[in-house]
Amino acid sequence: MKRLALSVLCTLLLITAWSQNEPEVKEKGYSVSGGLLGAFNFSKFRVPDKFNSNINFDGKMGWSAGGWLSLPVTSMLSIEPQLMYSSYRYFTSDPTPLLLNDGRIEYISLPVLLKFHLGSMFALTAGGQADFLTSVVNNNGPAIKDDFRKTSFSLSGGLEIMPHGRVAIFGRYLLGLTNM
Fold first, then answer.
1. In whole angstroms, what is the distance from residue 59 CA to residue 45 CA?
2. Residues with Cβ < 8 Å from 112, sequence gap 6 or more?
3. Which of 11, 37, 91, 159 stands 20 to 30 A from 139 (CA)?
4. How far is it, in rounded angstroms, from Cα 162 to Cα 120?
């Protein structure tokens, strides 16, 4: 909760600090654009536990790659659909044999984001994402692809730095809505 409050405070400070740049964005009249994207993701799985055995999954680094298309609605708002291939990793050191112990789950991901431009240097993003299961690689457990839902949904929110540059940096938090 403290991290969320700190993130919101920092975002509000950034909005205030760069609000002077807003007229520059309006003058440029941005048009439809697109490009490639690559990302590292940090995932931590949670498994509903009916027996209170306190299984703890470690956070693991994965990756995503794909493309995006930006469709301006106004000078301050655009819609950005994306298409990504995403690999999420999981690991637990729990000695009990589990369905998931060590491996990765891979998806075709379709985020659709609303991007709120805060001048030429920053943008806030919010939206939904649908993920379509492509494979499960489970190194030390019995899990197979049929053990998971084929489609899952999540909400996201994030911050993008230099959204109109040739290279943009972004951070995004995904909140899963589907029990996979």
1. 7
2. 79, 80, 81, 82, 127, 128, 129
3. 37
4. 7
CA gyration radius, the chain: 19
| pTM (two decimals) | 0.71
Q: Which helix (H) or strand (E) holds 135?
A: strand 122-138
Alpha-carbon 83 to chain mean position: 12
Per-residue tokens: 55: 């299984």
- The Cα–Cα gap between 114 and 100 comes to 34
Strand-by-strand arrangement of the 60-72 sheet: 33-43, 60-72, 77-91, 102-117, 122-138, 151-161, 169-176
Residue 60: pLDDT band (50, 70, 90) is confident
Structure tokens at 54: 């306190």
Q: Which has the closest alpha carbon to 54: 5, 108, 96, 104?
A: 96
Give me the count of residues in the chain: 180
Average pLDDT along the chain = 78
* pLDDT band at residue 51 using 50, 70 and 90 as cut-offs: low
